Amino acid sequence: MTADFSHSLLRRQLRKHLPGGEISSQSQPLLAAVNQAYHDADTDRLMLERSLELASQELLQRNSELRQLLDANPDLCLRLDHQGRILDWYGQAGSRDFWTQLAMQQSFTAGLPVDTAQKLLLVQAQVLAGQHPEHTDIEVQLSEGPARLELRFVPLFGNQCLVMIRNTTERHRWEGQLAQRNRQLLSFHMMAEVIMTSGSLAEGYERIARELWDLTGFEDIAIESYDAERACMIVQASTQHGRQLPFEVPLDQTLSGLVARSGQVLIERDALSRPEYAHPLLRSLQIQTFVCIPLKSEQRVIGALCLGSAQIREVDEAFVQWMTSLARYLALLTQRKQVEIELLQSKREAEAANQAKNRFLATMSHELRTPLNAVLGFARVLLKDASARGKREQSFLERIYSNGRHLLELINEVLDISRIETGQQELNIVSLELPALLLEVIGECEHLFQRQRLLWCLDIPGELRPIQSDAVRMRQILTNLLNNAIKFTPEGGAVKFRVLAQAGQVRAIEVIDSGIGIAPELQEQIFEAFFQVESAYDRRFEGTGLGLAIVRSLAHALGCRIEVESQPGQGSLFRVCLST
After folding, report:
1. Bridge partners, residue 155, by sequence
2. What domain range is 527 assigned to?
3. Which residue, 251, 259, 288, 579, could crosslink 292 as a Cys pair with Cβ 3.0–4.6 Å?
4. Which residues contact 305 (CB under 8 A, 6 or more apart)?
């Protein structure tokens, strides 16, 4: 029996081994299975080939994309073998001269200094061995100048590695400029803080010199003042001459003298060769590089900031600008500190003079009161026997007694203000019945009401709780306010005491009059010692001008507040607001 098998491979095998084409019936099922197996194998092979083709296309696409990414990378990427030989390179940086030359070398360390090359090969070996570090920095010479490179190593398969090289020169330059700017800002802040917190200019200069020594690296930092009349520079602070400070240097024996006279910045890289640099203390430092910046105040040179080094140092424009700004700031702070010191000295002198005045007033008041009390005492004795004397003598005695009392009141006011200003007032806080105190104050002034034909009124709400205060000082406050109201109220007017309370708690005491009133612009000045409202117009009213000053000082001591409401010609209201 001849069977038809579709697979070509099987047919070839049958023709080769069965030339007659006869196949037994027993073999046909087996050969049919083989035929089917051949067909299945072909199908699987075709599917595998298609899969491999697709995978190859995807791999090529990914490789292309990866290559594009690497070529777009601004860094240079080198694929290296374990000996550092370059197998391939990527990146736009390869178009630059240095990178192109590097990529064309057999080894990525070719052309580098021996120590740098050994350093890079060691890092590569450590990375391939799974050790750290994975990156390092080197400095090289490019066609455009010195450059700083950052190299990062990534291990690959087959004992290979990828090294990514980035030019960080620009970044380091900006970082350096930022660090320099931060140092400059720090120096300005330091200088202001030092000057403002120092007790004297000499102390401030010394601290600034030490700080600049740390910031600049110059061995000698000196701050000098300029004395044009004596033709010398005075070294106020120096990091090298601490024990000799301050000392004078003639203008013709120091380079800072040239700066003081010219007002210009001086940079000298061989100071010892200059004949002007002649002072023994200065030459002993063996200064080579010398930088001197004038200190100017309102276009006038007041000193110099000097920096010296025994080494020859490069001084760039940025450094000079920094020091010039510092010098300008130092001159301004110096001027402000001098004004502050002068003001402080003036304040101390004024306080000393004021204390001397208070002591004098207190002494004189005491010395005046002693004989005056004797005069008043004898006048009072003589007035008791007035019936034995004529009307003229009695009038003289009454005038002596009245004027003596008035003079005693003035002396007591002067003595009170002296005690207040010198802090000699002592308080004794007790419970006070305010209505009784007000009646006592009015009673003491009864003769004044009668003499000027004034009406008085007492407005007190019922059921008041006692107040906590000093009886003597509160009485003095109310008496002074009442006397002030009586003095400035014309004949036939009225004066009123009014108490403001809330739920039995006294809040304020008011003294209201129908007098001449006070202009709004004068209502703050009336509480100043010796100020009198009518002094701008005439002197109709007697007094020292201390009454209201004493009132406000005593009120503050008791924790009270004084308020005033008034208009010219409409009377006045003085309010004593008690502390709650």
Report:
1. 161
2. 426-577
3. 259
4. 221, 222, 223, 224, 292, 293, 295, 323, 326, 327, 330
Q: pLDDT per residue over 236-295, tens digit each?
A: 988 887 677 888 999 999 999 999 999 999 999 888 888 888 888 888 888 899 999 999
Residue 154 sits in the same domain as residue 257: no
Give how many domains the chain has, as a whole number: 4
| Token pair of 183 as six digits | 């140092």
**Six token digits for residue 129:** 């061995």
E-strand stretches of 243-318: 247-250, 266-268, 289-297, 300-309
Secondary structure of residue 474 in the 3-state scheme: helix
Respond yes or no on whether the N-terminal peptide bond of residue 74 is cis (omega within 30° of 0): no
Q: In this structure, are 110 and 60 located in the same domain?
A: no
Residues 89 and 57 in one domain: no
Asked whether the beta carbons of 11 and 5 are under 8 A apart, the reply is yes
Q: For residue 242, which amino acid is it?
A: G
pTM: 0.46
Cα-based distances in Å from 130 to 87, 137, 200, 231: 21, 19, 62, 72
Question: In degrees rounded to 5, what are phi and psi of residue 419?
Answer: -65, -40
| Angle between the N-to-C axes of helices 28-72 and 8-17, in degrees from 0 to 180, rounded to the nearest 10 | 140
Domain membership of residue 158 (yes or no) is yes
User: How far is it, in rounded angstroms, from Cα 13 to Cα 1?
Assistant: 17
pLDDT at position 538: 47
